[in-house]
TrEMBL record, chain B:
The keyword Nucleotide-binding applies. This is ATP-binding cassette domain-containing protein. Residues 5-242 form the ABC transporter domain. It comes from Parasulfuritortus cantonensis. InterPro entries: AAA+_ATPase, ABC_transporter-like_ATP-bd, ABC_transporter-like_CS, P-loop_NTPase. Gene3D superfamilies: P-loop containing nucleotide triphosphate hydrolases. It comes from the Bacteria. It holds the Pfam family ABC_tran. PROSITE patterns: ABC_TRANSPORTER_1, ABC_TRANSPORTER_2.
């Protein structure tokens, strides 16, 4: 006979008796498992389970006995029960019946290569959806050309207000401050050469050509791109997209085109506004640090900033806008019906559209080296 | 027979409307009790008051020997480990798999190893009548009936003494609904669970419930076995049970007596 805390294993004339002594419940499961694991099991033989001295038993405790006995080679139906009350017998019947089916094979763990392949094939699987959306948008735009009355004017203006007007304060603040910082840093350098007036050349070129369009694009991607994805994604979760489709309306026309056009209209305007505020910030610093009056600053700017440079900077904005709107809407429609998906897709929108903006910007720089 | 849940003199005012005006009933150990009443009578609200989610204006809720609304927060948390709740839509965590959903309370409230928790999770999934393969699925991949079962598995994770179920069969087809009823009854009988459920489903009432508590006009107007309650001559109860018979076009053969034929 051996004793080990919550149970006792006795040799009987016909085989073995396992007497359960303690509290076989979830709260003690870890200790019970340790006690069972540290015990030498007899050779398989007729086993009797005795519950007359039990303090408590629940389904988890019973499962532990069942699974450990099975692992030791004692198949359950061969176990004889004695001393259990009616409640425990009902519990034993249910649990052992449910556990009778074999355990499922755990899913195989994949290595690095398999995970990489999964990611790549997942990314590749995105492609058809993106192409489909591109096709649908083109079709919708062509439809608009044929029948302009079908355009959702109200939704367009609502979006224009939130993308454009709503972004004005933050665009103003950001570009003004970048203008201030840029002029200040540049000013420290050129003052050493006594070339103060060239602050105007450097600042106005940089802001009009690169800084303002890029800053506005980054801001709009984070602000409106994320909003588009979250809005469309939440509508997808609540089946509103399906409702739009079943009412005979096109989700592209109702949701995508107004957003796309609103952002395409708003971004060049925001960029131009950013140009103004950036230059204003730089002019403020030039006046206070480099003794360049506002009049001198703007007279010089008229000479050194060709209109082409300004329009080149502004021409990037619609391209950024299309990329942001497309990526945001695509991710919105790709949301699956759970809460995490909305978050993942919104993050993807911001990251991907920022990458797209930087790529497009580089492409513009390569294609227009002369400016 | 000991009392597991005792609700007394509950008054609730919600959005300026008096919802409960002195509601009281008891649930004994091992009983399965259904709370019925028309839409807007506050069945779900009452259930939420029992489990400590919504504080009533006044009244007492004694659950498993504790007065729910007089407990300090950590006392309420300890009490919550002793009962399970099945919400109407399942309320599964959508970003976790079924197995992770069932594992969540175990991970939080026990100190078991991952291997041992996996075994417990597998058991609960099986007890809830799901195939073991369902463990790796996301809630979005499950049918309505399977979602309810997964949520039930999660509610059973910590070996509760009592279950609260909000409309357990709503949104299920009649066959799945009956299967779910049978499962609940089997689990309650075998695991020694006490259950309080709200329902609109008369088949649930006739099929698996020990006792019915009828809420009407902010009060409990009837409390007893379903066959007795169905015989009570009250306008709402009469129309409730006859509407059901008329809808099915047949009389219920479940020993319901004349009451249900109006």
């Amino acid at each position: 006979m051996t004793e080990a805390g919550p149970f006792a294993l006795d040799r009987t004339a016909t085989g073995w008796t396992l007497r359960l002594l303690g509290d076989w419940r979830l709260a003690n499961l870890a200790a019970l498992d340790a006690a069972l694991a540290g015990h030498a099991w007899p050779e398989a033989g007729p086993l009797c389970l005795d519950g007359s001295a039990l303090i408590g038993l629940d389904s988890a405790g019973l499962m532990l006995i069942h699974n450990r006995l099975r692992a030791a080679g004692v198949a359950w139906p061969a176990v004889e029960l004695s001393g259990f009350d009616a409640d425990h017998l009902a519990l034993i019947r249910l649990v052992t019946d449910r556990l009778a089916a074999p355990a499922p094979t755990p899913p195989a763990r994949f290595g690095f290569l398999a995970r990489l392949g999964e990611r790549v094939s997942g990314a590749a699987a995105e492609l058809p959806g993106m192409l489909a959306l591109l096709g649908q948008i083109s079709e919708g735009l062509l439809g608009l050309l044929r029948r302009p009355a079908g355009f959702r004017m109200r939704e367009f203006f609502v979006q224009l207000q939130s993308v454009g007007l709503g972004a004005l304060p933050i665009v103003a603040m950001m570009t003004f401050l970048i203008g201030v910082v840029f002029a200040y840093l540049l000013g420290i350098q050129i003052e050493k050469y006594g070339a103060n007036i060239f602050i105007v050349d450097g600042v106005s070129l940089a802001i009009a050509r690169e800084l303002s369009p890029m800053l506005v694009a980054v801001l709009v991607a984070g602000r409106s791109g994320a909003a588009f994805t979250a809005q469309i994604g939440a509508m997808k979760v609540t089946e509103e997209i399906d409702a739009i489709a079943t009412l005979g309306l096109s989700p592209i026309k109702v949701l995508v085109l107004p957003r796309l056009l609103a952002i395409v209209v708003a971004m060049p305007l925001l960029s131009f506004f950013g140009d103004l505020m950036g230059v204003l910030g730089a002019a403020t610093v030039a006046a206070s640090q480099l003794d360049i009056t506002l009049h001198t600053f703007f007279t010089r700017m008229r000479d050194v900033l060709p209109l082409d440079t300004v329009t080149y900077g502004l021409s990037k904005a619609p391209a950024f806008a299309v990329a942001i709107a497309f990526i945001a809407c695509r991710n919105g429609f790709a949301v699956s019906r759970d809460a995490r998906s909305v978050g993942e897709r919104t993050t993807a929108t911001v990251v991907t559209s920022l990458m797209a903006v930087i790529l497009i910007n580089a492409l513009y720089a390569i294609l227009n080296p002369a400016l | 027979m000991s009392t597991v849940l005792e609700v007394a003199a509950i008054r609730t005012v919600l959005a300026g409307q008096r919802l409960h005006d002195g509601v009281g009933f008891k649930v004994n150990k091992g009983e399965v009790v259904a709370l019925i009443g028309g839409s807007g009578t506050g069945k779900t609200v009452l259930l939420r008051e029992c489990i400590g989610l919504l504080r009533p204006e006044s009244g007492q809720v004694r659950l498993l020997g504790e007065s729910v609304w007089d407990l300090p927060p950590d006392g309420l948390d300890a009490l919550r480990r002793r009962f399970g709740v099945l919400f109407q839509e399942g309320a599964l965590f959508s970003s976790l798999s079924v197995a992770e959903n069932v594992d969540a309370p175990l991970r939080e409230h026990t100190r078991l190893s991952q291997a041992l928790r996996d075994e417990v999770v597998d058991l609960k999934i099986r007890l809830a009548g799901l195939p073991p393969e369902a463990a790796g699925k996301r809630p979005a991949e499950l049918s309505g009936g399977m979602k309810k079962r997964a949520a039930l598995a999660r509610a059973l994770a910590l070996e509760p003494e009592m279950l609260f179920l909000d409309e357990p069969t709503s949104g299920l087809d009649p066959i799945s609904a009956r299967a779910f009823d049978n499962l609940l009854r089997t689990l309650c009988d075998s695991l020694g669970l006490t259950a309080l459920l709200t329902t609109h489903d008369l088949d649930t009432l006739w099929g698996m419930v020990d006792r019915v508590v009828v809420l009407h006009g902010g009060r409990v107007i009837a409390d007893g076995p379903v066959a007795e309650v169905a015989r009570i001559d009250h306008e709402w109860i009469r129309s409730y049970f006859t509407a059901h018979v008329a809808a099915r076009g047949t009389a219920d053969g479940n020993g319901s007596g004349n009451g249900i034929r109006g």
